[in-house]
Structure of HINT domain-containing protein:
Amino acid sequence: MTARRPCPSAQGPLEGYAAGFDDLFASLAQRRGFREYFTDLTLTNDASPRGPPTKITSTHHHPYWSETRHRWVDVGDLQVGEHLRQPDGTLLTIQTVRNYQYTVITHNLTVNQLHTYYALAGATPVLVHNCNLSDYADSLRAGFNKTDGPFFAAKYTSPSGRTYFGHSGHDLTPAPGGEVDSLVRQFTPEGGRYHAGCAETMCLIQAEAAEGAAGIRGRSFEVVKVRGLNSPPGGAHGTPASPCALVCQPRLQHQGISFEGG
């Protein structure tokens, strides 16, 4: 695995994971209906205040850099009106803060004391933390080619608030007999390809593997275009896109998953 900060940056090893304790805790928590505290933030971009708001979900003790206070603040302690800073320097304004409980098991992973990272299996990002879709799309640019892409990057937020990232042209396959496998087979045009390599499908495969069938029923998708490093500033890279209307949109609608059009 490779750790990077913040999303693209310095590399370093993953720190140890106390599997025995964590697995025991997870087992006890599942039996007792353990409820974790979460916080939803609704944010607007100061550079385009009339644009659609962005929603972020995280555990309530997760630290965010507050430009208002000039220090790290647990998300559960943030206030409406505070400013957060994006990697490109633009500011986000907090419009709403919602603290609540949800019955789900969460695991904390420390990567050399970094809050933001992603992990690679070869060239494929398989674990992403605090990386927004724009950062993820940027991480794919170096491997882009005009024949195979990847042409699209997607972010899926599951009902539990967990996020999964995917790109077109991936080589993941749905678990045989699983819900994603059923979707791929059910919503395929006669004589058409399965669209198993779509960015949306990669996200759903990961979500089903991590959370089961319930992890791919509901919540939302975001999709953006990916272009290479030679793409000019202000070009197509990073612009919003829609899941394909012929195959992916019917699959998401069948699962009650919302998405934004590009």
In short: Confidence is low (pLDDT under 50) at residues 1-30.
